[in-house]
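Hey,
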Amino acid sequence: MTDATSSADATDTDGHPINPQEVGHVVLRVRDLGRSSTFYELLGFRKVGEIGGIMAFFTATGANHHDIALQPVGTAAPRPTPNMVGLYHVAIRLPSDAHVRAAFHRLVDAGVEIVGSSDHGVSHSLYIKDPDGIELELYADVPGWQEQGEQVATIRPWDPR
């Protein structure tokens, strides 16, 4: 181990040595750092730092040092293609359906590409693309979703308007 914790101390009570707590942050490669920074600020993220044009860091609530980092790779970088291996989308949880609906209207007004919406049984989701074609899911959990966990694989129509 790289810190003072012994491997015996790091074993979870179920005997599994890896015990993820959450997904800590996502680093996205973008073409233009300024353009992408403006977009993620439109989504409500607050810029908390930047390494001189090399990387910018954003937090959603301030509870984490950063939730998203953006790394510019240049304007000639290719757009993501639908069938490539890698990231499909990043999901961003909002407080309620009302927030997802308000986001829908604000993003439509800002000219953001809306690619779909779904009722997943446990959540209601709006799918959008950032300026580089990276897909994002803005969603709200349905109250009581814990009792409906088996519905996580559900895809039904949902109208965010």
